[in-house]
Amino acid sequence: MSKTFADHVIAFNEQLSFDAVLPAGIRVMNPFREQAGVMDVMQQFYKKYYGDRRRRRLILGINPGRLGSGSTGVPFTDTKRMQEVCGITIPGMKTHEPSSVFIYDVIAAYGGPAVFYQDLYIGSVCPLGFVSRTAGGKEVNYNYYDSKELTKAALPLIVSSLERQLTFGLDREVCYVMGTGKNAVFFTQLNAEHGFFGEVVPLEHPRFVMQYKAKTKDLYVDKYLQAFADVGPTGQ
């Protein structure tokens, strides 16, 4: 029997690794190897929403953050949304991420998680996250594009991961990229070089919306929905 979309995603996540040399002060974040229970929760999630062979469109974030996929293994899904919306609990861990709030507002407006996830798959340009350590010893999120040295080190992983995800059964007509600045510029150029997708559609990053445009959040929810509607249903 052929593999389901969930089978592909789970195997991909289980095998993620990063062996390149990182810039000083930067650490790779792989939630599937660092957080107890994350692997199990990730498997439950994808089996629940992706246990089929439907074709889906791809939405790309930047790279995993500590409070979203860093805590659950699922992009833009903190433990609060994972439990209250998706019905899956991570014992002993509680996270709240504003970006997750926005994404799940989009998901609710789309028709709920079952409907949304049967049409769309959320990933990241770089599937592993990075953190830097502050002078006070606190770890903070660090993006793959925050230094040229890190971008160069992460590039082989970025390209190979995208190539592999295309084998899951993704619609290659369009890819939505969250982040209209550096993330969109980087991925648009990468797509031009490799021909991953026919079109790249940038959308405002959820973190930007929640931090700077919270009062007009609904306008950005509508913008996401319109972008998805402009392409139409993916189907089988």
Question: How would you explain this protein's 3D organization?
Answer:
The protein is α/β, with parallel strands linked by helices. 46% of the residues lie in helices and 16% in strands. It has one domain (5-230): Uracil-DNA glycosylase-like domain (Uracil-DNA Glycosylase, subunit E, 3-Layer(aba) Sandwich), CATH 3.40.470.10. The strands form two sheets. It has a four-stranded parallel sheet, with helices on both faces. Strands 1-4-5 form a three-stranded antiparallel sheet, with no helix packed on it. The model has no long low-confidence stretch (mean pLDDT 92).
Write a concise keyword list for the protein shown above:
single chain, 236 residues, alpha/beta, Uracil-DNA Glycosylase, subunit E, four-stranded parallel β-sheet, three-stranded antiparallel β-sheet, 11 helices, 7 strands, globular
Output the CATH topology: Uracil-DNA Glycosylase, subunit E
Low-confidence stretches: none
| Proportion of strand residues | 15-25%
- The ordered string of helix (H) and strand (E) elements is HEHHEHHHHEEEHEHEHH
Sheet/helix structural class:
alpha/beta
> Major beta sheet, specifics?
4 strands, parallel
Quick one: CATH superfamily?
Uracil-DNA glycosylase-like domain
User: Briefly, what CATH class?
Assistant: Alpha Beta
Strand order of the largest sheet: 3-2-6-7
Mean pLDDT: 92
First-residue to last-residue Cα separation? 17 Å
Number of strands: 7
Question: What is the CA-based Rg, rounded?
Answer: 17 Å
Shape call:
globular
Helix segment tally: 11
Judging by the overall fold, what is the CATH architecture? 3-Layer(aba) Sandwich
The total domain count is 1
What share of residues is helical?
40-55%
